[in-house]
Amino acid sequence: MKTQLDYAYGWERSRPDARWLVQPMGGGRIRAFTWREGLDEARRMAAYLASLELPRPSQIAIFAKNNAWWILADLAIWMSGHVSVPLYPTLTAETIRQILEHSESRLIFIGKLDGLPAMEPGIPDTLPRIVMPLAPATRGEPWADIVARTAPVEGQPSRQPDELATIIYTSGSTGVPKGVMHSFRTMTAAYEALMQTLEVRVEDRMLSYLPLAHAFERWILETGTLVAGFEVFFAESLETFVDDLRRARPTLFVSVPRLWQKFQSGVFEKVPPDKLERLLRIPILSYFVKRKILRGLGLDAVRFAGSGSAPIAPELLAWYRRLGLELLEGYGMTENFSLSHASRPGEVRVGYVGRPYDVCEQRITEEGEVLVRSPGTMLGYFKAPELTAEVLTPDGWLRTGDRGEIDEMGRLRITGRVKELFKTSKGKYVAPAPIENRLLEHPDLEQACVSGHGRPQPFGLVVLAPAARSRAKAQDGRERLQAALREHLAAVNGALDPHEQLEFLAVSTDEWTIENGMLTPTLKLRRAAIEERYAPRVDEWYAAGQPIVWV
């Protein structure tokens, strides 16, 4: 079986001068690596790592936002016989230290980061550092100096498919991060299955912006470019994101529901929904309007578009489909390197994440939990055999922790987390995720969290979309919003069982973000943190007896 290194050497031989990695350098400057140039830097860094004579294999950490040198560092770590340990670029100092110590990392690459001074105390003073280009000012051996003075490793340093390649620490919506161990085989097999399903080609293009420290981007993009050979563009910043998209004009684009919603909100800020609806009803004009919107977003060249990480509102799927962009939903976990389920073109069913990949199996337990068996399943949790035994059955099934249902075509619908169910004071269980999806069908809402453990009825915490936040600043705008949300709440409750119906909506204009601790690095809700933040107000909200309360 070929590993990522084997594939990379193949592109180095067959397409040495083809453009591979396109990196913004700031101020409008771009640095583009060919396969020859990229592999040359990785080889030089691998030679330097080998010269340090660390025990093989040793764990080496990568702490950076997405950039070209992130991938080159990963290749260098593998070439030199070691194991990569990615760190999310938004972690607290405490979590950074915890991961570095637990993983027994012997060296750390530090790269492009925001807010390093607050995070740096988590890096032990005794840990050797290599500072990549675009990194903020910090101590350590500069990448450029090492590459300039070190001769490249020659030949094709190889690794066995079943060797440990990486330890990915889960972002974790609760609890302590766990180190998920993946081999070269689990990573490569996972992408080869995707490649067969979507017919990924060397001519494709992708934009890298979802965290490379997460299994999903390592699968869809890093392993993807190494296996399929396509070109990768990197995003420079949030402020330049749409410009980055336009420069890349990706043919494959995958995002999370929150970003798809932000794209829609951005369109609505320029063209109000009612006006856009009228334009889309005019047959001849409709085509040009759709193309203009997609071109403005940089998505006009997309062959396959996807959404993952969390459920997406059906109304949002329908809106993009009307523009000519069929969003394919997918489902997977760090523990199976994202290889599990995906929608196929023409088979999309709203609310379902699709069928298992051809090499995957699925089943539902009597308790309603989804179990998956696939070639991407992890080796286990690092230094945690008891935790491994809790999620991996002796015959190789992975307990996902998700509840689900399977339709007649084998498509899976996720109905909530096994542990997310909460019980009201009436003894009834409530699954929050489906209700949150219904709430987010309203264009003025961007985020939602349903809570109410131990209460007679659940309630909804919601965050307004940017345009709605602006309108809420004026008294008349807030009153209109309140009336619209009251109507939306009534419609949502009308579709729910009595024990699920929401007592009220608590409406916030403050966004939940990674930085304020309300979201994981992969933009999932940290339910415990959100509930803790608003806990002092909940009694007051119930006592108010109003359908809409303002946070």
Give keywords.
551 residues; alpha/beta; Rossmann fold; Luciferase, domain 3; 4 domains; five-stranded parallel β-sheet; five-stranded mixed β-sheet; 18 helices; 37% helix
Would you give an account of this structure?
- The structure is a single chain.
- By secondary structure, the chain is of the alpha/beta class.
- It folds into four domains: 4-233, Rossmann fold (3-Layer(aba) Sandwich); 256-300 and 302-323, no CATH class; 332-416, Roll (Luciferase, domain 3); 422-550, ANL, C-terminal domain (GMP Synthetase, Chain A, domain 3).
- Helices cover 37% and strands 22% of the residues.
- The protein is built from 18 helices and 27 strands.
- The strands form seven sheets. A five-stranded parallel sheet has the order 4-3-5-6-7, sandwiched between helices. It has a five-stranded mixed sheet with strand order 12-13-14-15-16. A four-stranded mixed sheet has the order 2-1-11-10, with helices on both faces.
- A hairpin with a 5-residue loop joins strand 22 and strand 23 (429-430).
- Helix 2 crosses helix 6 (143-149).
- The longest helix is centred in the last third of the chain and has 20 residues, at 475-494.
- It is globular.
- The model has no long low-confidence stretch (mean pLDDT 92).
